[in-house]
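Inputs:
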Amino acid sequence: MQMSRFSAIRVVSPYASNTPPQRQPANGSAAVIAEISAGLLAPDAHTSPKFLYDGLGSKLFEAICELPEYYPTRTEAGIFAAHGADMARAIGTGTTMIDLGAGNCAKAASLFPLLQPAQYVPVDISRDFLTEAVGRLQQRFPHIEMTALGLDFSSGFELPDSVRHSRRLFFYPGSSIGNFSPEQATAFLRGLRANAGADGGLLIGVDLIKDSGVLDAAYDDALGVTAAFNLNMLRHLNHLIGADFDVGQWQHRAFFNAAESRIEMHLEARSALTVRWDDGERHFARGERIHTEDSYKYTRQSFVGLLERAGFATAQVWTDPANWFAVIHARVIPD
Ligand code: AVJ
């Protein structure tokens, strides 16, 4: 057979799958770059789950909340719907409601008619996403004073003077407390207690230990939305530290670690590869992982014990009929 006189045409496209992304300058602060670099260079590579939330990450998390497998949001919403009036009786109206990780503010908003806070203070690391949501919310509830705070509260924070001091209610739904280890969670809640004042309280959502098949599916859904959410962190890291992560080279892994009572999420290298960023690089063997998130699960009793160690007395616990999720109201134990 005669060979073609023409050589094969090589298509050079920025979208070709075998073209690793071009590195861009780092956009993160020096502290953020140092934090991410240290995690990537650690023997067991890891990153903080807060880096899952850029603009797209926040939207993907919203999509996760719609998935049939992801029961926490729906189950918690069911508890609020069934027991919201009871919660309002226990907590009272006119509080200073500080919403930690507010996101689209939908959960707090669903409680406004019953809880009628005097001031609403949504806090979220994804500032633009938050600002948009609060603008819409203020129009719907013109009588509630709203002060949005775009900050990372995961390592402690100070509230500005614009936040009222009386009857502070920290609202921490969605089982986001699960991102902390039990020791970190205790320290974090102690910090809230210090910021809450003697008449302060906490309304918190906690995911409960259940059948591991249910847990695994919630973090590895059939549509692959959670996989996209996890993998999107690599795009975010490219932006923050000027790295050249190639998303196609990585795979989502999520499973319940019963010994640690936590869901673990990882990103696993599909082949041996090297990642380079502004002032560092790391080789990953095929199958090597970056640990991106922990989501701890508790029993009702274990979490009540944790609250006590943090200086909170549990006032009331509401659950769904299957006992998959708990919403807990706790009060500051005064010194
Ligand atoms: C926002 C931390 C509560 O742990 O269930 C969802 C994040 N990660 N699917 C959780 C998450 C993967 C979520 N929290």
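The pocket of N,N,N-trimethyl-histidine is lined by residues 64, 72, 174-176, 178-179, 219, 226, 293, 295 (CB under 6 Å). Flag for discussion at group meeting.
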